[in-house]
Amino acid sequence: MAQSHERECAVCTEDFTTPKILPCGHLLCRECVISWMDSKPDAGCPLCRCPIVKQSDGSSSATVDALPTDFVMEALVESARVLSKDHLCCVCEDVRADFICMQCQDMLCSACTKVHKKMSVSRSHDVESVSTVTPERLAASRPALCADHGDKHAKYFCREHRLPVCSACKSHKHKVCRETNYLDDEIKSVQNSLTDLTKNLVEAEQKLEQAIGQVTSSLQEVDVSEQEDMAQVDKVCDRLHKLVEDVFNKLKDKCRKKHLKIRKSLCDVKTGLSNRLGKVTSHKHIVTRAVAVSPRPALIHVTQALTDRVNSLDLSTDLQGEVWAKPLSSVECCQEVVRRIQDELLMLKQMTESEPSVLVFHENCGKNIRLTNGNRTAEKIELNTFGNGVVVSRDPMLANVLYEVRVDAGTGVYNNLSLGVTRISPARLTVTLWSRDLQDSVIIMPALVFHQGESALLPLAKELWSLEVGSRVGVLVTSSNDLHLYINGQDQGVAAKNVTQPCFAVFSISRSVSKVTALPTSRRT
């Protein structure tokens, strides 16, 4: 049942007068919509700001008249107005009416009600107590009147003119109309259509509510995920802070102990020198006094004794070299720690920002290599140059993901590549990859593997000697930290075990190879 406020316009707060249905579904009086649109340009619904489509002529009245009218609400407002009037009998006029005829819409007292039920015209009408009738029931029982004869009941409905008509109008004015059905049949058809519309709207409402619920659930999951990620970030940062604090304390303690040792050594030397100085000063006073006041025979006797005593004193000022050596500076040690932390933070940043779907060469590839095509193609500038021909993946490798390059151009039949993995970050990998002092690196050369400075034969890599243009070579590190060599997509076996993570994929363009291209990575099982 519609409440009284539901029959009021949101703009004028009065009962609806010619209620218009806006595109958003809200109802407003016709005049209220026109006034609202005239008050501001591009005015939308005053309740939800949904736009109101204008007609081509741009007039507000034309726009509003093109909107559908809610005749049901109009009937409800009229029925509520009837029920809200003074309950006086329409016949007696000064007698209170306790009943209402649902078809005639007239108020009746008890006496008139009896007469109304006895008359042949109104004998079949429904007469009910005014106190129990609602505007909805009264609007539903309103009789359909002929559009041309307002006092005659409509029995037919002209589809061509969209009007209810009486029998006389059907026979005369609407005689040539093609479709004139019984009004009851038309009402049933309309009710069925409205039932279908209601069903569709209910289903759409349920689906939309379900979709909103799913989105709400996803939003909650996002919030939970964000909290978990934030907690993880806090945990990582706390760990980093602890590591930095531990390094800070260790460096401080190391510096303190080193200087304490040197300070103790210097104090011991200073004490020895002070004791030596005291003896020298005392004997100086004795000698000076002997020269000044001793009689000559006594001076002769004491001189030998003083000479022997002074000769027995340690008058040297030589100090051990390490005593005077400046303590070893901790600057280099601190800088090395900073570099390592920066490398770890760089790796962490790259792991969080990188997209694992594509292998991308790092920009730091040496003076004889240039990168083209979005950092995916490495091209050699000087074709016969050894060294500085190293290209390296920009991001750390992922487990069970194949990192692969294709030989695009070569100068001979023996096109060969060397490849592998290294823990050295691309920013620090500058000159030569094949130095034996590269730590935590595994380099696969044709039929040979260098692992942390040690070499071993790898017969499976013999195909690296002569690669045709278009050949693909790559490396993969499994979740168990085994390094596999791939040639043309085929696994050639384990090249090394216990590879230290995280690491980067590296490739060397040899003298015969002039260009290689990084290929999209692929996950292998």
Which short descriptors sum up this protein?
525 residues, alpha+beta, 6-stranded antiparallel beta sheet, 10 helices, 22 strands, 39% helix
Number of strands: 22
Q: Name the beta content range.
A: 15-25%
Q: Quick check: average pLDDT?
A: 77
How is the main sheet built?
8 strands, antiparallel
Shape: elongated
Structural class comes to: alpha+beta
- N-C termini distance: 65 Å
What's the helix count? 10
Rounded to an integer in angstroms, the radius of gyration calculated over CA atoms is 51 Å
**What low-confidence regions span 5 or more consecutive residues with pLDDT below 50?**
431-437
Helix content: 25-40%
Describe the protein.
It is a single chain. Helix content is 39%, strand content 18%. The strands form 5 sheets. Strands 9, 10, 12, 17, 18, 19, 21 and 22 form an 8-stranded antiparallel β-sheet that branches. Helix 1 packs antiparallel against helix 2 (60-66) and helix 7 (183-293) runs antiparallel to helix 8 (296-312). The two termini are 65 Å apart. The radius of gyration is 51 Å and the shape is elongated. It is built from 10 helices and 22 strands. The chain has 525 residues and is of the alpha+beta class.
